[in-house]
Structure formats: C-alpha cells, structure tokens
Amino acid sequence: MRLELDSGEHLRVCPQGYTCCTSEMEDKLNQQSKLDFENLVEKSSHNMRTTFVSRHKKFDGHYIFLEDRLIHHQLVTDPSN
C-alpha cells in the first residue's frame, strides 16, 4: 500500500504543504471537533444552568408573594381601590 501525498493548497485547517489530509477528512475532523466542543460546553455548564433555573423560580415565587402582600395591604388600608 502506497501513501499518496497531495498538495494541501485547498485545505483550510490542515497544513498547506504536501499532506495525506483531504478536504473530506478535514470536514469530518471539523464536524467532530464542533460536536466535541458542544458536548463539553453542555456538560460543563449543566450545573450552572440548573442552579440559575432553580434560583429564577424561587425569585419568581418570592416576587409573587410580595406582590400579593402589597395588593392585600393596599386593599386593607384603602378599601376604595
């Protein structure tokens, strides 16, 4: 089996000299790299996103509670509203 080297002038990522890398190989490596990066970001940000969602829900609940108390207080102090 003989390995043929091609001029890498058409490549965007791999070295531009004589190489065994083809455009198809480069595209596959690019797609795999993108997928690996997205998975890494997904895994590493999971806890942060979970914490944010949890605290957002708690804040919304507390805000609604305070809003209800304010409305109740306004009705008690000024029944004409």
From TrEMBL:
| The keyword Glycoprotein is annotated on this UniProt entry | yes
What cellular-component terms does GO give this entry?
cell surface; extracellular region; plasma membrane; side of membrane; synapse
Q: Where is the protein localized?
A: Cell membrane
Q: How does it sit in the membrane?
A: Lipid-anchor; GPI-anchor
The family this protein is said to belong to? Belongs to the glypican family.
Q: Which keywords describe this protein according to UniProt?
A: Cell membrane, Glycoprotein, GPI-anchor, Heparan sulfate, Lipoprotein, Membrane, Proteoglycan, Signal
User: What's the source species for this entry?
Assistant: Collichthys lucidus
Role description: Cell surface proteoglycan.
One GO BP annotation is: regulation of protein localization to membrane
Q: Which top-rank group of organisms is this from?
A: Eukaryota
Q: Name one Pfam family in it.
A: Glypican
Q: Which InterPro entries match?
A: Glypican
Name of the protein this chain belongs to: Glypican-6 Secreted glypican-6
